Amino acid sequence: MNKKLLVYISDNQFTKLFWETVVEFGFDVFLSGDKDELEEQIRSESYDYLLIKSKSSKEYVDLIEQFKQKNLLSVVRFFTAEEELLFGNFDDELQIDLLKDNFNLVKTILSGEVATSKKQRSEIAYLTEQICQSMYLSKEKTVVALAAAHVHDLSAYLVNTESPLFQKSDFIRITMEFLKPFNYSPVVLQVLKQMYMKLEDIHDNTYSIISQIVTVVSIYCQCKFKKKKYLNTEFSILKEYLSSQTKAFAEPFILGNLLEIVSKDIVKHITEGERCTVTLFAQDDGKYDDVIESLEQNGFSVFRTELFEELIEFKQTGKMEILVIAGESTAVDTVDLVNDILETGLDLITLPSYLISESVSVYQLSGLYQKGLEDIIDVSTETETFMIKMLRSKQRILESPLRQIKILNSTGTFGTLSSMSLIDLLQTMRGSGKQNLVSVTSEKHQLSIYVDNGIILHAECDEKTGVEQIYAALKWQEGVWCIESIAKDQMPSNEINKPIDMILLEGCHQLDESAIGIHK
Q1: Global pTM?
Q2: Do residue 290 and residue 393 come from a single domain?
Q3: Which of 202, 234, 302, 349 is the Cys-Cys partner for 372 at CB 3.0 to 4.6 Å?
């Protein structure tokens, strides 16, 4: 059965070549130059494709929504010249067929006794797509990978998964047999065939990278380290376990990409639940109870005081990440209050500080900006503005390197180079009094740094040793790092034996020299 194509060209100008080409492709074409006629076709007929000649899609929003409601799996495209369709990737057969295959498959499953794990399959598909994007795979390969991720484990719901008679490869084989009656995509079946296949046994490399990706993600989602359970587990244990499970089936850099994605999600998950501490310097008379309630609802822990001694104590004990000062009833008294706070030794320039007031105009207090206040806000009329500014300050604090270390320590001392660079990471280990192994994975590289009480003793990367390996790694912007404590007798020979500060100083100098060379 031919696919149906609906084409709208407002000026009704199309070439004979265009018409002959779409017919030759096997399409049943309805060509219209009238918008009312187009709307009537959408209401009365179903189409596989809708092509609209226009530079902008804005005026067609309602029409497209109407079309998609009736033609759920159909494609809408805008074009400005016929050449875009004649010589571009017009058909998209693979993507459309995969979507329809999946749609029919889901209907069959839902109508029978097979029950699927929606949460697990969603996680596998999500991670698969993230890895494809991180590796800049083509749109075609990404769609194939997503299809394989969604269907690869269907057999787990058709046979007893606890049976010792079945290996992972057996489940894949059963899935393939289940899919064949649906005339499922041979490309996806080839991907499934190569899953859990040893690298040396793979001879067709066209889609082997996809098989490796889905295999690694599948192993990760099935392993005992579920997200909620390994937040407080050493990240190195997770990494070591997955490495042992995947090394026969996939290249190491695929696991590296997965670990970076997973660690970012964990850090994001923890950060979203992390609270930021606010000290409200105000009298306990109920005047700002609504402000306190709003702050607490938005992820802040609020400590209220009207004593200067407690103000100093809160700063020293870490209870003050943001300072909010409630102004007095007059401008003069408010200025005196801010000056008194400054005399306690608090630096309002480095400490995010806000002055809120309900009785004195912001204009009368504008001179206080010179004292270091981040903003002065009338909370009687600008409560929403105040909260937006507070949330921005919270985000800056949670993203700061020192706060990231605090957060990441709770996850087993691991993280990503995008959230904390190797330079910032090593700086936090100066004079720690401990022996640590710092492991960093970036693309296909694996760096190990041995640190003893702030002294770097040894470094190795890709079977090469020496301080030069650290200098090269300082350029890395993407990757995963983890820190683990090790015993004194596990430390290797100290062929470097230099303080962290000295190595970072030379490394940053080399980075500067490299940057100058690039811009010459």
Answers
A1: 0.48
A2: yes
A3: 349
